[in-house]
Design goal:
Shape: globular
Number of strands: 0
Structural class: mainly alpha
Radius of gyration: 15 Å
Order of helices and strands: HHHHHHHH
Largest sheet: none
Length: 170
């Protein structure tokens, strides 16, 4: 178990582990099609975040990254085919984070929230714009801010900065 999961039950820990594949499927599938570029880009972000992350997320991306591709493929195979149904199902699952974050250390909760939103932004930028990168489609834009998750503010006394809008090279 990683320290950020202290005090959480198995179901809550599982949801936090599944959040990244859920976010990937939500954003990548918002336009009706989960394409390989978005899945590959999400896997690349996972690798980068495994070694480039705020101290408050130490161990999380390594833990999630170990099974990311397999979890994502399994998740996609079990989700409804219809876009609206899929989005609704994923949104309901992610909304459960609203009950988990208050149970966590406030610094950890804020880092998880910020990390999830910036991860969603990166996935959304994977298949649009010039040469397929950089733009967020209208469909993805509705969900990229993860509106089903209540914003978690960084504690005022925090000296541990969240992810900057890191640059990721192709």
């Amino acid at each position: 178990m990683i320290p950020q999961f202290a005090g959480l039950n198995d179901t809550e820990q599982k949801l936090l582990k599944n959040a990244i594949p859920l976010i990937t499927a939500l954003i990548a599938g918002a336009d009706g099609n989960i394409d390989s570029a978005e899945k590959e880009w999400a896997a690349k972000i996972m690798k980068i975040r495994g070694y480039q992350h705020p101290p408050a997320l130490e161990g999380y991306y390594k833990l999630v990254g170990e099974e990311f591709a397999t979890q994502l493929d399994e998740l996609i195979s079990t989700l409804p085919i219809g876009t609206d149904e899929r989005i609704s199902m994923i949104s309901e699952e992610l909304a459960q984070l609203n009950d988990i974050f208050p149970k966590m250390d406030p610094l950890h909760a804020a880092h998880f929230y910020h990390s999830f939103v910036t991860f969603a932004e990166h996935v959304a930028k994977a298949s649009g714009g010039i040469l397929g990168f950089g733009a967020i489609s209208r469909a993805e834009g509705k969900y990229v801010g993860l509106p089903m998750i209540n914003k978690v503010e960084m504690p005022e006394d925090a000296d541990d900065a969240p992810f900057e809008d890191e640059e990721v090279e192709e």
